[in-house]
Amino acid sequence: MIGSAVLRATISAVAIVFALLLAATPAVAGRVALVLGNANYEHTVPLANPRNDAEAIADALAELGFEVYDGFDLGRAATEDLIRDFSRAASGATTAVLFYAGHGLEVGGVNYLVPVDAQIRDEADLKFETINLTDILGLMERENRTNLIFLDACRDNPMAGNLARSMGTRSAFIGRGLARVDTGVGTMIAYATQPGNVALDGVGRHSPFTSALLEHIATPALDVEIMMRHVRRDVMEQTAGQQVPWSSSSLTGSFAFKLQEVPQVMPDAPQIAALVSPDPDVTSRSDLAATVQDPPSPEPTPLPLAVPSPVGDDLPVLAAPLSAKEIAQRSQAELNRLGCDAGVEDGIWGRKSQGALERLLEHAPEIAQVALDPSEGLLQRMEQMEGRICPLVCAVTENLVGDACVRKTCPTGQRLSSRGVCYTPQTTTSRSSSNPARSQSSCFQFNGQTFCN
């Protein structure tokens, strides 16, 4: 009886340990996040959703294994303290995330996050009353890691009007919404809407952007760039196309907020009992003693055929991740192959390359991408496309013949102008000399001889 009671107690204890191990969700090493949400502004109209948005994102990131540094309705000093703590925690991290919801300003191409105690009366207040987004990005990009920034801060801001009045003719430097920021390698910035536009605060508990983000952020094994395409599509549907989330990415690898789930099976009571107390019929003392005294004769076991281990060229080769320049160069080559004219394939992503990608997106609507920057995911999509995608565009002096541009021809006696128009050139007549004296030879005599010019 006592033995049975001890066995039952042991089984219960082991079951509890298994349950605790399965229920525990510790923070994933190397993941850290800064989450800020400002709604209750002291010197301007408060916002409805930013605090709700930030709290929900903070909870979601914590469940996904992030060490979260969150702050809601903070003034400038408290915001700076939290950023400092986040920066220290991010040292050595493999992934750093920034999420901000609240008022933001763009002045002269620089984006500013607005704390709840900010008083912005003129341009000088920007330095002392707001948080320069570039400073936070600089802290995040000091190390080689994955940096993800989500900005739900493009709401209509009455502070911009006050600032514009104080700046007078320089008010043109104040943007509507946030400005696009160039990212360092390994960084993605996602905006609630396209640069220069204003995002909607939403009529529900969350803004359209945050609502879509919460819908997809915990999808297992979903790459973050593909996730942003889902977010973009959802927001456009919610807002009838008025708001289009925008992203700028220089990520060199894949990242998913939630790793692929591995099914975990908890052993049942008989399995636990077998671990605690093996079957006496199998491991009884009498059997053990008999085995020691009269061991069974070993039966010959066939040896498996030897299989040579891979050596030399047979070893599997793991592909190294592409650098940002390699992605850009290969993307330029694909754009040229698809007829979109990216120019020289030098890995320098300039205006010509952006224009080529813009033409591709215009004629390939199935690629749900808004940012005009190369990425590994976009490169893979282009590599799967066949034939010419961008239509051939000929110069004004050429005609499209089949799949080639052929120089225009003009009727006999006509010429082709630089504008591509055939014209008849004017004929010129030679003028006779009006001075007959000059047309005659001039002669003179010297020493009895005649000399003429």
From TrEMBL:
Domain Caspase family p20: 29-158
One GO BP: proteolysis
Coiled-coil parts of chain: none
Top-level taxon in the UniProt lineage: Bacteria
Start and end residues of each stretch annotated as Disordered: 279-303
One Pfam family matching this protein: Peptidase_C14
Molecular function per GO: cysteine-type endopeptidase activity
Protein name: Caspase family protein
Protein source organism: Marivita cryptomonadis
